[in-house]
Amino acid sequence: MRIERTGHIQPIHPYRQQEMRQEEAKKKGKERDQLEISTEALELQKNQETEAERTERIAELKKQVQAGTYHVDAKLIAEALLKKGM
After folding, report:
1. What is d(CA 68, CA 61) in angstroms, rounded to the nearest whole number?
2. What's the pLDDT at 69?
3. Distance in angstroms (rounded) separating the CA atoms of residues 81 and 86
């Protein structure tokens, strides 16, 4: 005995189904994938940039100290201490 399904639609190849979904999405004007970076990740990135600047500044100061050309501005230090104290 042989049973046949009436009105049966042949399955579409899975890759073709994916292509069809993509085409439908384009037609509907769906948004594309987006990437959102968390605030924590942005802070970490900012800290890395600051760290590189800090490293360069320290190297520059070391060279000045070794060459004997580094001079401290006492007035700027005193002003900074007064601002922090208030």
Report:
1. 10
2. 93
3. 9
* Element of type H or E holding 85: helix 74-85
pLDDT at 9 over 80: no
In sign, the C-alpha dihedral spanning 70, 71, 76, 78 is positive
Listing DSSP states for 18-61 in one string gives HHHHHHHHHHHTPPPP-----HHHHHHHHHHHHHHHHHHHHHHH
Structure tokens given for 71: 């001079």
Instruction: Please give the torsion angle defined by the CA atoms of residues 44, 50, 54 and 55, in that order, rounded to the nearest 10 degrees.
Output: 60
Q: How confident is the model at residue 67 (pLDDT cuts 50, 70, 90)?
A: very high
- 48 to 39, 44, 52: CA distances (angstroms): 14, 6, 6
